[in-house]
Amino acid sequence: MRAFNSKQHHDLKFEEVFESYKHQVYAQVYVIAKSEYAAEEITQEIFIKLWLNKDSLKDVKNLGGYIYTIARNYSLNYLRKAASDTRLVNELLRVAVTNDNNTEANMRVSECRKLISTAVSQLSPQRQLVYKLNKEDGLNYDEIATHLNLSRHTVKNHLMAALHFIGAYLAKNDVNPTLIAIFSLFYIN
């Protein structure tokens, strides 16, 4: 990203910042989010944040690094939030398999889902229930704890153990490392 020195910051206009960085921010976000829609939305959010804090930009010594960090953080936050949106997770899984045609990519994603299902079936009944309540029904730790009359800590431990088992099961079954990374990113937190 293009860097502005401190002297340039004093006379810097927001429009110049926007014009200088908009394409780079979009490209960076797109590489992380792998979605044109997300890249557009996140880029807009980033520049709104910069606009709202434009007076403080004059104190930033490395504007390019500052904007790069904001773009990275917004993109990663987007991916974390995507874990609760099944459609978005499915879309990211679909685009994660690169250099394959759509049929092959869909087959790999389908195989990965089957392996996850098989791994879940091998969990203890309590871990299966905690996993399904969290990942399929969308309940949080506290809701599951109340529902099952367990402590929040116990629920978290069951879920973490289940997720690590599933990740290891995928690796043992030669699942594409990209798909395992996406599973880990979305489900192991």
Structure description:
- The protein contains 10 helices and no strands.
- The chain is 77% helix and 0% strand.
- It is an all-alpha fold and 189 residues long.
- The protein folds into 2 domains: 6-82, Orthogonal Bundle (Rna Polymerase Sigma Factor, Chain: A); 86-187, Winged helix-like DNA-binding domain superfamily/Winged helix DNA-binding domain (Arc Repressor Mutant, subunit A, Orthogonal Bundle), CATH 1.10.10.
- The chain is elongated.
Give a nutshell description of this structure:
77% of the residues lie in helices and 0% in strands. It is mostly helical and 189 residues long.
Please outline the helices and strands.
Blueprint: H1 6-10, H2 14-33, H3 36-52, H4 63-82, H5 86-96, H6 102-121, H7 125-136, H8 141-148, H9 152-172, H10 177-187
Helix pairs in contact: 2-3, 2-4, 3-4, 5-6, 5-10, 6-9, 7-9, 8-9, 9-10
Keywords: Sigma factor, Transcription, Transcription regulation
Family: Belongs to the sigma-70 factor family. ECF subfamily.
Protein name: Sigma-70 family RNA polymerase sigma factor
